[in-house]
Amino acid sequence: MSDYPHEISPDQRERVLAHFERLFTRYPALEGCRDQIMQAYVLLRDGFARGGKLLICGNGGSCADAQHIVGELMKGLYLKRPLPQTQKDALRGLMEPILPGGADLLQRGLPAIALTDHQALTTAVQNDLDPSLAMAQQVIGYGRREDVILAISTSGNARNVALAVATAKALGLRSVALTGGSGGRLKGLCDCAVIAPASSAADVQEYHLPIYHTLCAMLEAAFFAE
């Protein structure tokens, strides 16, 4: 059973929308992506509300972005996210001899896994199966119907990323793409594609950062703002 609410309060909704609108104030060129960014937020929010997790994949700079997103979701971004008191109390008796006050420092997180990590598994798949299946194999192991996959590719045509999304869709996961240019292969493969208004990899990645920072902030507000 998920601990996350399916409905958010008016105050939480106001905070979510404040982060959303701030993005377009600071980056007017993203105005054309407004509907897709909101759709991406809803898909991610609903996945977490179902008790699911987020699987993230990408190559090169997008690999670094995947890891960055995990860091923003798994601990506080703008908010402190203290643990529920019952959880603190359960932890305190066990943690105090090891780290006094540790239970008060831990924070609630939104579960996210970067499929770009796990070198032992990745190299085993590359050697034993096929290099392009390293992320897809992790989707087979981690993926559940309540999960969402976030695919990051500046061109939208990264083969290993597309194979991970195809595997996720076959398992019933929802999918979101962060891409650029024409959207590439991922545009038609994912449930939602946020296509940055640029073509070169560097320019696309410069837009991806504020987009996913905003999505992380919106999700944090929806689940942890009081």
Quick recap:
This protein is α/β, with parallel strands linked by helices and 226 residues long.
How many helix segments? 10
How would you name the CATH homologous superfamily? Glucose-6-phosphate isomerase like protein, domain 1
Tell me the strand percentage band: 5-15%
Broad CATH class: Alpha Beta
The main sheet orders its strands as 2-1-3-4-5
Question: Sheet bearing the most strands, described?
Answer: 5 strands, parallel
Low-confidence stretches: none
Record field, number of beta strands: 5
Rg from Cα: 18 Å
CATH topology: Rossmann fold
CATH architecture: 3-Layer(aba) Sandwich
Structure characteristics:
10 helices; 226 residues; alpha/beta; globular; 11% strand
Describe the protein.
The longest helix is centred in the C-terminal third of the chain and has 24 residues, at 201-224. Helix 1 (10-26) packs antiparallel against helix 10 (201-224), helix 2 packs across helix 10 and helix 7 (134-142) packs parallel to helix 8. This protein has a single domain, classed as 3-Layer(aba) Sandwich (Rossmann fold). Strand 3 (148-152), helix 8 and strand 4 (174-180) form a beta-alpha-beta unit. A five-stranded parallel beta sheet has the order 2-1-3-4-5, with helices on both faces. The chain has helices spanning 10-26, 34-49, 61-74, 85-95, 102-105, 119-128, 134-142, 159-170, 184-189, 201-224, and strands spanning 54-57, 112-114, 148-152, 174-180, 192-196. The chain has ten helices and five strands, in the order ααβαααβααβαβαβα. It is 54% helix and 11% strand.
